[in-house]
Amino acid sequence: MISKELLEILACPVCKQSVELKQDKLICQQCKLAFPIKDDIPVMLKEQALPI
Fold this sequence. Notes:
The protein is mainly beta. The chain has 1 helix and 5 strands. Strands 1, 2, 3, 4 and 5 form a 5-stranded antiparallel sheet that branches.
């Protein structure tokens, strides 16, 4: 589980907007991208993101 403090400082690597936690992904509403979380570590790479 991602801590609240970490979630507050994470930003989308593409547009620099904040992301929100939904199920097991971090979602950027601006870019419409979903970043995976693997072993409780957010993978904030554009290449790993999936469109939503």
